Amino acid sequence: MANARIKICGISTPDTLDAVLAARAEYVGFNFFPPSPRHVDMAAAAALAARAGSTIGKVGVFVDPDDSLLREAVAAGRLDAIQLHGEEAPERCAALRSRFGLPVWKVIPVSNAADVARADAYRAAADLILFDAKTPKDATLPGGLGLRFDWSLLAGLRMALPWGLAGGLSAANVRDAIEATGAPLVDTSSGVESAPGIKDSDKIAGFCAAVRA
Length: 213
Ligand SMILES: O=C(O)c1ccccc1N[C@@H]1O[C@H](COP(=O)(O)O)[C@@H](O)[C@H]1O
Description:
single chain; alpha/beta; tryptophan biosynthesis; N-(5'-phosphoribosyl)anthranilate isomerase
């Protein structure tokens, strides 16, 4: 089986971006959700995008964004894909894909089998489904909290769309996660940090090495 592709999310500094590039992750995520400790403003996104160049896919992370935020972020971050981590309906995903001409990655929060089945509603509206752990109702963020879900819910998954796994992944557990789910793409944020929003270059390298081990 081919190695899973890797997305390292929530990069906000040049040195940790360099660690992602050195580790040859396929995607880097820039977070445009203001309450997040990983949030980047447009100037920072532009500087990071210029440094990243075109050898890595640049994914913008959004939570129920309006079109003007998307327009600014797509240009500043030279985005290659739009990750929607809120309550965006299939119609909204399809509209944004056509408006911005970019692939849409729709996040499906999971705590049970019915949640996994919800992905099917996006088959004509998104380009990739990212399964992440459902956060508690009173959580401060809809993602990036290092929460896992029961990976056996994805065992034997047959999907019409490309898909990936997120939620609480780290160097210590990502191999088990890939073996349990067969995920063709893995995404991590807090699992490669020393504190919320503070990425750790050694952990980034360790995560990528563990995926390819
Ligand atoms: O990271 C954040 O702060 C964040 C904020 C709002 C929406 C999503 C966010 N993060 C994404 O959540 C998943 C899982 O993160 P973790 O590995 O469990 O920390 C990932 O896609 C992050 O990009």
